[in-house]
Amino acid sequence: MFVVEIYAAVRHFVFIEGHSRREAARVFGLSRETVLKMCRFSLPPGYTRTKPPEKPKLGPLLPVIDAILEVDRDAPMKQRHSAKRIFERLRDEHCFAGGYTVVKDHVRVCRARGRETFVPLSHPPGHGQVDFGEALAVVGGVRQKIHFFCLDLPQSDACFVKAYPRETTEAFLDGHVSAFAFFGGVPLSLLYDNTKIAVAKICGDGRRDRTRAFTELVSHCLFQDRFGRPGKGNDKGKVEGLVKYARANFMTPVPTAASFDALNAMLAERCRTRQDEHAGRHATTIGERLVADVEALRALPAVPLEPCEKRAARVSSTALVRYRCNDYSVPTAYGFQDVLVKGFVDEVAILCGGREIARHPRCYGEGVFVADPLHYLALIEMKPNALDQAAALQGWNLPEVFQHLRHLLEARMGNRGKRGAREEPGACRPWCHSAWRRRPGSSRRHLRHQHGIVGGHRRFDRQLWKMRIGGEVEADGAPLDPCQRDLFDGIEADGAEPDSLGDGGRHDVLGRRLHQPQHLNELPRRLAGGTLHMTLASAATLYLTDPTLVIR
């Protein structure tokens, strides 16, 4: 091919100096056809095909290649044909005698022709995109998969990331509440994919039927919701890029944290640190461009949204409420009643008639029994045979004094069984319920004097603390044996005397003002004349409901 300088010299010789093409061919030693082409083109035109090249071997098989590539559009990404695999199939199935290169070149051209192109978008301030991502983390010493909530403001590329154990409705709501608090306002609109947490149904005309929880979020925070096309992640490419960025930068290497609170504190700090960086071709930092976004945000609601999932349920005969494949206990008084379960990220609250009756730590396993032993103690006192096998009491870590109390009571009661103490006449007469009934002919004043009632309430003096398990009472001044002293004098409250009553208020057996239910001040009666299991249940109830109690 002739260089550009020869083109310039020939064209100058013909057009400027006025010589003929025949003379130019003689002077430059070129053919007349070459001089004519140089006069037509200012630069070498190169080789130009007048028709596509013929492919005698591959030509008949081009429809087969096109059919393979069309089927690959619906196949998984990792199971699509490579050019080498197509060549092997043509050779084995269609007796193709050509080479691999011609097949490879044709496949490359076909795939480039079928790739999707995109339109660049502009993002005004105050709008956002939301998505969830997955990663691995070590939380509390357990290596597990976590789901992290991402909210991106595309105009400034500012981000918020928060991790959760599961991608659930309560995590979805809590992520929004936390993100709004992080940015100090509510975006004008948010773009989502078609997650089932937000979309109940995609209608034929493109409208979405929102879920109840997502409708409550939109109504409370007053932002506009928008949705991308199903299966088209590029509709919200900014937050898709944020998910990839957070996994590659915030969670590489695999993060280790003592709890999700510690992990989320680390992620929030990373999001703040990123605001000092530059993103894309922008000359200003993310934080400097975030100012325009913050100015466009709406004010936060006056009352924060309660980020929980609400489900109606019914209490079973065993005082259990099922929520997400786990059983949570409620007080036995609410058996067979309709309740409302509020599932938070870290807690489960159970309400009956608008009043909270139970609250438990959230469990993300399946078939787990989550119980509060206090919910069953009142029922166990009426059904003492269930004490040893009560599921709610298994693994209950009480102080060693309760185990000592049990061994002591078993030794004192001997073989009388669970009803032995009750069958002895007069053994617990001063403390039984029948002794509190007003006998015919007895005055109210006589009843108070007989049972030591001051101000309408029972008065416990020091002598009653010296009652033995069998119901006998020590005489004044008689020494107590070490077991009795450990049992009755070993349970004390700081700064309280059992006989320092008389103010007319409700007090327990330790002389402290009683704010718990009335049955707690019946511990001496149960210690003296109740059953063994009732005694243990009463002691445990008193210990757990009075955190100031000291057991020596």
Commentary on this structure:
There is one protein chain. This protein has 552 residues and is α+β, with helices and mostly antiparallel strands. It has five domains: 4-40; 59-114, no CATH class; 127-296, 2-Layer Sandwich (Nucleotidyltransferase, domain 5); 309-372, no CATH class; 392-551, no CATH class. Helices cover 36% and strands 17% of the residues. The chain is built from 18 helices and 19 strands. The strands form six sheets. Strands 1, 2, 3, 4, 7 and 8 form a six-stranded mixed sheet that branches. The protein has a four-stranded antiparallel sheet with strand order 9-12-13-14, with no helix packed on it. The termini are far apart.
CATH superfamily membership of the largest domain, which one?
Ribonuclease H-like superfamily/Ribonuclease H
Low-confidence segments: 420-530
The figure for the number of domains is 5
CATH topology group of the largest domain: Nucleotidyltransferase, domain 5
Count of helix runs: 18
Task: Tell me the strand percentage band.
Answer: 15-25%
What's the N-to-C terminus distance? 106 Å
Largest beta sheet, briefly?
Answer: 6 strands, mixed
Rg calculated over all Cα atoms: 42 Å
Helix percent band: 25-40%
Structural class of the helices, strands and pairings? alpha+beta
What is the averaged pLDDT score? Answer: 79
CATH class of the largest domain reads Alpha Beta
Number of strands: 19
Give the second-level CATH assignment, the architecture of the largest domain. Answer: 2-Layer Sandwich
The shape, in one word, is: elongated
